[in-house]
TrEMBL record:
<feature type="domain" description="Cytochrome C biogenesis protein transmembrane">
    <location>
        <begin position="14"/>
        <end position="228"/>
    </location>
</feature>
<feature type="transmembrane region" description="Helical">
    <location>
        <begin position="173"/>
        <end position="195"/>
    </location>
</feature>
<feature type="transmembrane region" description="Helical">
    <location>
        <begin position="97"/>
        <end position="115"/>
    </location>
</feature>
<dbReference type="GO" id="GO:0017004">
    <property type="term" value="P:cytochrome complex assembly"/>
</dbReference>
<feature type="transmembrane region" description="Helical">
    <location>
        <begin position="136"/>
        <end position="161"/>
    </location>
</feature>
<dbReference type="InterPro" id="IPR003834">
    <property type="entry name" value="Cyt_c_assmbl_TM_dom"/>
</dbReference>
<dbReference type="InterPro" id="IPR051790">
    <property type="entry name" value="Cytochrome_c-biogenesis_DsbD"/>
</dbReference>
<keyword id="KW-1133">Transmembrane helix</keyword>
<keyword id="KW-0472">Membrane</keyword>
<comment type="similarity">
    <text>Belongs to the DsbD family.</text>
</comment>
<dbReference type="GO" id="GO:0016020">
    <property type="term" value="C:membrane"/>
</dbReference>
<feature type="transmembrane region" description="Helical">
    <location>
        <begin position="216"/>
        <end position="240"/>
    </location>
</feature>
<keyword id="KW-0812">Transmembrane</keyword>
<dbReference type="Pfam" id="PF02683">
    <property type="entry name" value="DsbD_TM"/>
</dbReference>
<protein>
    <submittedName>
        <fullName>Cytochrome c biogenesis protein CcdA</fullName>
    </submittedName>
</protein>
<keyword id="KW-0201">Cytochrome c-type biogenesis</keyword>
<feature type="transmembrane region" description="Helical">
    <location>
        <begin position="12"/>
        <end position="39"/>
    </location>
</feature>
Length: 250
């Protein structure tokens, strides 16, 4: 496609991981509970008004859209930076994969409760100031949220950035971070579209937070082990053999 080999069997496993990681990030204990208040704050309304549907739905959808655009901006820029870094050190790609694999396994063990990494409990947030209730304020909050280093987003985002760096291609790294942004951002948009139903569903999901955290831990440990053992290459070959049509994409 335009001379750029973006999609193929080798990239497919990483894209699946990136999309799944984005969804799990949305369901994580440091994101899911703040979705309703964030939406209310960005739209300049209240959670009660959102539940009643008192004409605030359009403002909530607009706020959610600009919030996701802010998230995506940061993720795509980080993806480009990680890919550029990977290209600079392409000769040491195997060593980078080993280091990245070890770090990602440690992240996964953190989520599983096997060990705790104090640094992952630090947060850096940016306030939108008096821009609450405006699209620009929602965009700023999206930027701030993406930059915030939290126990949930930080390790998962670091994992996807490590995979992007392994690609050694700016375009492929950009696509990978795009899939992560879709996995995290699409649930925000769906929450805004199906607002009243989503608020009840989100409240019910909160009691499953420990399960989500363990699932994130298992995903990160699996990704780390695949990077350490070269398993992504084997998985890519398996995908090409099982789905030959993947070889025609790109």
């Amino acid at each position: 496609m335009f001379g750029i080999d973006l999609f193929d069997g080798a990239l497919a496993p990483a894209l699946i991981v990136a999309l799944l990681a984005g969804v799990l990030s949305f369901l994580s204990p440091c994101v899911l509970p703040i979705v309703p208040p964030y939406l209310a704050y960005m739209a300049g309304t209240s959670i009660e008004d959102m539940r009643r549907g008192g004409g605030a739905d359009r403002r909530v959808m607009t706020a959610a859209t600009f919030f996701v655009l802010g998230l995506s901006t940061v993720f795509l820029v980080l993806g480009l930076a990680a890919s550029a870094f990977g290209r600079m050190f392409l000769a040491w790609q195997r060593e980078m994969g080993l280091i990245g694999g070890v770090v990602i396994v440690l992240f996964g063990l953190h989520f599983l409760g096997v060990l705790r990494i104090p640094l992952l409990y630090r947060e850096a947030r940016i306030d939108a100031g008096d821009q609450a209730g405006s699209p620009f304020g929602a965009y700023l909050l999206g930027l701030a949220f993406a930059f915030g280093w939290t126990p949930c987003i930080g390790p998962v985002l670091g994992t996807i950035l490590s995979l992007a760096a392994q690609e050694g291609s700016l375009e492929r790294g950009l696509v990978m971070m795009g899939f992560y942004a879709v996995g995290l951002g699409l649930p925000f948009l769906l929450t805004a579209v199906f607002l009243r139903h989503a608020l009840g569903l989100l409240a019910g999901l909160r009691r499953h937070m420990p399960t989500v955290e363990r699932a994130m831990g298992v995903l990160l440990v699996a990704v780390g082990l695949l990077m350490l053992t070269g398993g992504f290459t084997s998985l890519s070959f398996w995908l090409l053999e099982t789905f030959p049509s993947l070889a025609l994409i790109g």
